[in-house]
Amino acid sequence: MSAAQRVRVAVVGAGAFAQSHLAAYAHIDRAEVAWVCDPDLEAARRTAERWGVRSVAADLEDVLADDGVDLVDLVTPVALHAPQATSALTAGRSVLCEKPMALDLAEAEAVAAVAASARGELHVKFHQRFDPVHERVRDLLRDGTGAVVAHFTLLGDHLAALRSRTHWRGDPRFTGGGSLFESGSHLLDLAHFWFGPATRVTATVHQLVADNPAKGEDTATVVVEFDGGVVLTLVGFWAAPAWDWRKDVFTADQVQLTVETGRDNVLRRRARDGASEVVAVQEGWFDRSVEASIRHVVECCAGDATPLVTVEDALDSMRTLDAAYTSAREGRTVEVA
Predict the structure, then answer these.
(1) Which helix (H) or strand (E) holds 35?
(2) 129-290+317-335: which CATH architecture?
(3) What is the mean pLDDT of the chain?
(4) What's the whole-model pTM score?
(5) Which of 65, 125, 187, 221 is the most buried (most CB within 10 A)?
(6) What confidence tens digit (pLDDT) does each residue in 279-294 have?
(7) Which of the 8 DSSP states describes residue 39?
(8) Where are the domains of the chain?
(9) 7-125 sits in which CATH class?
(10) Could you give phi then psi for residue 9, rounded to 5 degrees?
């Protein structure tokens, strides 16, 4: 594909996250969104009208019949990721898939096997890797003495959705699990980005507040041991009064790096002598990192870049997630395969 050509995109899904993706494409000159696809055709039409997209469909097969589509962007429930990605890859298209890439590790490995022999590429959107503050932490750890201990806190309010008998969130049939699968998967992938491959996982998951047996966990605790010696603890709770994500990393020379995540991402560095400084700030980090990750995928589709998040990276995160649920279910520490 020459530098003058555009990447034609089909966005599959017309919900809230699809709007986030479409907002990103609106700032990427190289991308042309040609289709919006959703089983709710009226929702697809409303979304297409909002973003100036010409074609709509209720069925992915109608989109794949358009030979001009280069990239299929899956912003759909997790239960649809594997079958939809398989269809698009088999049809010779590249795929951008929201995380997690499948309902479980077996599904993820099956999709990866299809991608290995496909003409198009499979990309999984772990957009937190593309945030400059998170990149700065990676660089500081790589250039310094490295991390030894980390603690991630994931607090959020999805209690109403968990208690709902009709809302999809937290329903393992559609999303794979609760707070750990949906939100924790982001932070486990970020941990891989910073610390490398995982070796052992010990975890517990509980539903302490939601009181809805049809839904997954509202509370999770995970201890991950990494090949390089780092030990991470992650605590997630989906019944907090507000959203608050915090990542603390401690190094062998007694430096503390803290990322405070709200509307902005703020990185603070605290030294052994107590001196503290703000090292980096990214305003509006969520939208900016989503756009950066999608822009990178478009460049990959155009042949101008190689994937910064590989299929193997996505599988590593799925293996750690799978090990956590196995550990919680069986009450033991699990070796990561």
Answers:
(1) strand 31-37
(2) 2-Layer Sandwich (3.30)
(3) 96
(4) 0.95
(5) 125
(6) 999 999 999 999 999 9
(7) S
(8) 7-125, 129-290+317-335
(9) alpha beta
(10) -120, 140
